[in-house]
């Protein structure tokens, strides 16, 4: 790929030319303290208007060489008001004020107290600074950024998985994508309308599409690694991801990024493929002197196909003729704003729109395939499944002081619409007159949330008492719409009709459904002493389609010494089955051992499921506990260890597929003219035991800084019970068999370990990262085990400040071109040489990034 070579040469030329740029600026050092004179650890110190920054060590000290003589420093830390100071040389002493003195308080997810920072939270919280991550790593979208930064987070790009090729499923602590709640600025984000039917992660789940929000719009991401249904409601069994949008003003940031994969497995002479281009701009405009602002982000990303079909395994020497990542174009616009009404009240508005179009490879139809018409495709064909996805959200609210209370009233609307198309296809039953492109229909999910919250801090009750209460009303809508007639109709009973690659949704699939939910909560935190915190939360929710649930959470934190803190939580939780899981209905084509099979996924409460005795879906319930400690080992070394237990009962899963020759229900399936059928059911109880470990060390030298982090997640999920019902009672291995169970267990590797070294000296930065993905066990179509051996990937990035406002980074993700274990494509779910496990199957990624900040 000549263009790729030229693209990579440009930044190298710029880098060589920039060496002549003379040293400027000055060396600045100092210490960041709180109002009591204690060091603030991990505070961010950034030279205003540049990419140049650092963080304080265990003693609150920092050293930074500025890039301009008249530099100003912006100092920030969670729980404190941001402060701007002049860079006046050595020995600065900067005291940060707590931000709880105004309505601009930073709220860390997991606590409604405005006096709580991440370091004294009773629950484990990861804080990921997106400014740091996006400038030093090769990943461009939020899912992939988190996949290689947060060990408890897992997300893989799917291939050969229909809709999941276009929307990446993601999970926390090895549970399902729908068991993690996503918030944006503390407000519930709507889910995707997609139900994942294929792939190794998220089968039968609906999840939240994190990639609709551009990384350029995000200030930080908070990951609460603890159950929080009693605090935030449904879906928070595994934890909560809170995306905090940028609030910066008078600062323009622009990025241009490009990279491509080193194509190890191709049948042609192309060296690179999967080109990934991203460009974005962010600007914040300050309005007046009361903190009003408007921050706007525009982002465009274009990702090309990868080709990984030429793998030397399988009976014909090839996995598939076309196999690899889909082509995706993604455009986003996001807004975050605040408008002061007075010193004690302000209005906030945030949200955005995302438009995504995708082309994904479906299974190859060979020339002599009964699903081919040789007059149209004499050499066979590879259908392309297209997507047209619209996603939009808008939140408007007001925060105001009411005496000693603070009130937050908001309305939140979100919508996700997924429209399928099929091209390079045909309908066999129409013969040579068949069209080659089809409108296959789709689905849409909408959500509207009205929430009211009240918070008050009683500073004179012992060492402080925070009380929060609130209520929330939510309405959800789900609709499924049919495709054009030729996409689903069979015009010849002797063959299988419908568009090849993805049969369109039929009129019998069409549905419009809605439900209402009302919730109320009470949340309290008491600082018994300066060392001991007690917290509790209680939440009641009522759903119009299945009834009520009451959940609670209790937690504590105790500072044993100034260097050791222990913490623990115990909570109950729940997850309401999504409207998509309740109402989805489709007949689709699956490939079992390479052979096409028609599968009916019957809607819950349909005539088919009622006849078989499949009960109505109900909520999942959970019990979980977390016990851990945080420690400061000296001035620059910190350690956090958290063990957890999560028990989920009545988990909603996608059952195994029942064939038309089944002795009990086979005749019913034959009458429906389908080969196989499967359903959604509350079929499993699961139990997770795990451990999260984070070890961080910061070493500062005269003009440089080395930050080293070792982070790991160890997770063991077991299926305690499979429950059947109706005419399928007693057939546990048939209802939810070993193969489907293996996919649930493979939502995360048993362990993921991340070792990162981040070195900064003057204008030069170097990041080296190793990620070890543990083995993953799946089963093939015959039930035989498939062991994907452990793998280690290596990322290396070098960055250089070309000018005070311009930074260049070049590097490689998966530097040594590591792939998962290869298998016969006839055994995998995708028809390729591997399932979408561990770090993915594209190999080495080479990239360059250019960032401007003014």
Automatic annotation (TrEMBL):
Its placement in the membrane is given as: Multi-pass membrane protein
- Signal peptide start and end residues: 1-22
- Chain ranges of the TonB-dependent receptor plug domain: 118-240
Transmembrane stretches, by residue range? none
Give yes or no: UniProt keyword rRNA-binding: no
Task: List the Gene3D superfamilies.
Answer: Carboxypeptidase-like, regulatory domain, TonB-dependent receptor, beta-barrel domain, TonB-dependent receptor, plug domain
> Which InterPro entries does this one have?
Beta-barrel_TonB, Beta-barrel_TonB_sf, CarboxyPept-like_regulatory, Plug_dom, Plug_dom_sf, TonB-dep_rcpt-like
The reply to whether Secreted figures as a keyword in the UniProt entry is: no
Primary location: membrane
Q: Where located?
A: Cell outer membrane
Q: Which UniProt keywords apply?
A: Cell outer membrane, Membrane, Receptor, Signal, TonB box, Transmembrane, Transmembrane beta strand, Transport
Q: Which Pfam families match?
A: CarbopepD_reg_2, Plug, TonB_dep_Rec_b-barrel
Domain annotation TonB-dependent receptor-like beta-barrel: ranges: 359-815
Please report which protein family the annotation says this sequence is part of: Belongs to the TonB-dependent receptor family.
Name listed for the protein in its UniProt record: TonB-dependent receptor
List the source organism.
Hymenobacter saemangeumensis
